[in-house]
């Protein structure tokens, strides 16, 4: 085979290309590393310098002062609960203990001497204490007992005073209600009023006046009983009946007033007469309302006085019982000491 210059050049080029491919392939193999994909932990190590410190420091000390005799624990040693860390010298403590025990014996001896010489005096002191307790208990108990009696007496006087006022109110307001009902009767019995007023309204007013009069008569009988017996229960019942009569009287007066204001002035029923009737009924109405207020207040005063009495008596009773219990305990304690 004949090699020409051209063939040589081509061969050299081919060799260079092959060498280049080989070198490139080797470099690629050095740049990349493959591995099978899987889950695992990535560990990163850090290297550093420094001083190691404990996470928690605990300062220890003896409960008493003294000289250290021995240290059992050293730095870095692991210890557990109950291990001895250090110990104090005990010789000085034993000396102090001996001195204290000797002092106790001396004190006990002195105490025995005192007891032997002072027992009679102590008994007298205890007797005095007991007698004082008894005297004080009797005094305090008598005082609280008397206070209870005084409170009960005052409560009785106060409630009787309230009922006495009620008796006076019954008599006064009975007359007022009687006059109020009579005022209505005077108007409604007038022949001229009967001739010229609406029959329906007139009959209603007359019925109301009759009902008020009946209530008044019932109240009057209860008032007479209360005045005779002076009983608290009878007085309170009379107040209740009188209050009912007052309410019925007010109803009758209102109906009578309506009749008057719906009336017509005539030759027989003059304006002067009609105005006089209106004024009379207005005054009666006002007096009845005043009586209602008085009787209501009287009833409330009695109820309030009862509440006050009950509270005061309970307080005095509790003080008396507490005092007896307290001094009984004091006397018992003194007697126990004496025995």
From TrEMBL:
Subcellular location: Cell envelope
Keyword presence, NADP: no
Source species, domain of life: Bacteria
Coiled-coil region(s): 97-154
Recorded GO CC terms: cell envelope
InterPro entries the UniProt entry points to: UPF0194_transport
Keywords: Coiled coil, Membrane, Transmembrane, Transmembrane helix
Membrane-traversing stretches: 7-25
Main location, first listed in the record: other
The protein's name in its UniProt record: Membrane fusion protein biotin-lipoyl like domain-containing protein
